[in-house]
Design a protein that fits this description.
Structural class: alpha+beta
Helix content: 10-25%
Strand content: 25-35%
Largest sheet: 5 strands, mixed
Radius of gyration: 28 Å
Number of helices: 10
Distance between the termini: 37 Å
Number of strands: 28
Shape: globular
């Protein structure tokens, strides 16, 4: 390595690396940012050290100092400041985690490795390209970027960086999708639209799929890859048993409502849909608080349903450890056993059984004219299945016939204990976990992004429209599990909000699949 160009820089690097342990991260960051980039004046090669030990030097000389960053990102609107901050944070973590001997190793190598060339000696080698960054180092940079937009722009820089983007990565933060075709990629607050049709008018969201209605059925579109999946019409349903008929009675005895009683309704719609696997789709189909579980194979001609199973007020479902689970308003956790139709090979429900008996509470009005409305979510987090109970405290209006007015939300989290068939209440989901709740809910690990966790980010995703809101605008809200309080994300991201009304209550999280 030729260190002629580092005659004065090597001492500053040594001083920076050997800052006292008491020095604050802010002070270290200022020193790091003060180092100029000499990429034009020197050809930099790496010593034979482990990559994690090379990383601070590569950050100091390569990316934290952003003087030449525009050469990489011209025309690619990735946030240079985000890259620099993430890299700086990562390098500081490495500094703090290393022994003093490790910190001395790098500056010692800079000072004493190889002959010292005269400071005025010209360099004949051309400046290296940013595409020459080692693949594993580019991967370390990419995994520090939280936004899917940054992942896409990173991959667009050059073939070498595109190869790094194909490596297995931690999941990015989800996109916020609005029914008018507007999308946000947190933590950025600038809205964008996908080119082409714009993807407005979706009915629901399923992972990385947008669900659009069509005639008497629906189809799925992945806005990232433009892949499409066609699902059967709701008028094409195979009954189990095939000769099922609706139960009739002339007495006052109540009759359990089944699929046979609701299948002729014009109000049938899909309220929840999940893609369990490339060959299995499950859906809640019905109207208001009367729904049933249907399933099909993508591209098939018909759905399948158990004709005599009682309809329930299903709240959510999740595909967990190879099994489909569903939960209704009674908080009973149900497992849906799936078999194969011997005639057609299509999936069908063979049995629905209860694995956890819930201990629910139901809506009642209190003396202070308040009433809690309940919503339930199923989320997999850190290998466990969680039930999240959301209580929306509403104000009961004085006028007869007026709707409730929604107020603050309070959350409780329960972990499924399959061994003892019960829900165990937990007070935390982990400092590295964020729960994104809505029509499609998931947990995302944020430890690599240096974000605080143990929070719930939720949307106003009321399906039944049983209550109104005082505020005409809606936004993403955050519930802090540690402090048991709600804050509105728009206080930190003032650009992310939208007006209520119409189909805007269908705002949802969209979880991209990095490829």
């Amino acid at each position: 390595m030729d260190l002629g160009a580092f005659g004065w820089l090597r001492w500053r690097i040594w001083l920076c690396l050997l800052l006292p342990a008491a020095a604050s991260a802010r002070k270290r960051a200022r020193v790091l940012y003060a180092l100029p980039l000499l990429w034009d004046n020197a050809a930099i090669s790496y010593p034979p050290l482990a990559l994690e030990d090379q990383l601070p030097i590569s950050l100091l000389v390569g990316a934290v100092c952003t003087g030449r960053a525009y050469n990489v990102f011209d025309g690619i609107p990735i946030c240079r400041k985000t890259v620099a901050v993430m890299l700086c944070r990562h390098s500081l973590r490495l500094f703090r985690s290393r022994m003093i001997s490790r910190l001395i190793l790098l500056p010692a190598w800079l000072l004493f490795a190889g002959p010292m060339a005269p400071e005025t000696q010209p360099h004949l080698q051309p400046p290296p390209s940013w595409s020459a960054i080692p693949l594993d180092l580019a991967f370390l940079v990419l995994r520090l970027l939280p936004a899917h937009a940054d992942h896409a722009r990173f991959a667009a820089v050059c073939p070498q960086w595109r190869a790094a983007a194909r490596l297995p990565l931690p999941p990015p933060l989800p996109l916020l999708a609005l029914p008018n075709g507007t999308f946000y990629s947190p933590p950025y607050t600038k809205p964008f639209r996908f080119p082409g049709c714009g993807f407005a008018g979706y009915q629901s969201v399923c992972g990385n799929w947008l669900v659009f209605p069509r005639d008497n059925g629906c189809f799925l579109v992945d806005p990232f890859s433009r892949a499409t999946v066609t699902l059967p019409a709701l008028s094409c349903v195979r009954l189990r048993p095939p000769n099922a008929v609706a139960e009739q009675t002339d007495s006052d005895k109540p009759v359990d409502v089944t699929w046979m009683h609701i299948r002729g309704s014009n109000n049938l719609h899909i309220s929840k849909l999940i893609m369990c696997s490339p060959n299995l789709v499950a859906a809640f189909v019905g109207f208001r608080d009367t729904t049933q579980i249907l399933m099909c194979q993508p591209g098939a001609l018909s759905w399948s349903v158990r004709a005599y199973d009682r309809c329930k007020t299903f709240e959510d479902m999740a595909f967990y450890q190879g099994k489909l689970y569903a939960i209704a308003d009674d908080e009973n956790l149900l497992v849906v056993n799936i078999s194969e139709d011997h005639n057609t090979g299509d999936p069908q429900i063979s049995k629905i059984g209860r694995v956890i008996k819930g201990d629910p509470w139901y809506t009642v009005a209190y003396e202070d004219d308040t009433m809690p409305c309940k919503k339930l979510y199923l989320v997999e987090s850190c290998g466990a299945l969680l039930m999240v109970r959301r209580a929306i405290w509403c104000r009961v209006p004085g006028e007869s016939g007026s709707k409730l007015v929604a107020g603050q939300s309070v959350f409780e989290v329960f972990k499924a204990d399959f061994e003892h068939s019960r829900w165990d209440k937990v007070t935390t989901v982990g400092d590295d976990q964020l729960l994104f709740l809505g029509r499609c809910s998931r947990a995302v690990s944020v430890s690599q992004y240096d974000f605080p966790g143990d929070k719930i980010l939720f949307l106003d995703d009321d399906e039944l429209n049983d209550y109104d809101y005082e505020d005409e605008n809606s936004c993403v809200s955050t519930y802090h599990l540690r402090f048991r309080c709600v804050t509105c994300v728009t206080s930190g991201y003032p650009g992310i909000y939208w007006k209520r009304g119409g189909d805007m209550h269908l705002a949802a999280w969209l979880f991209p699949q990095d490829r």
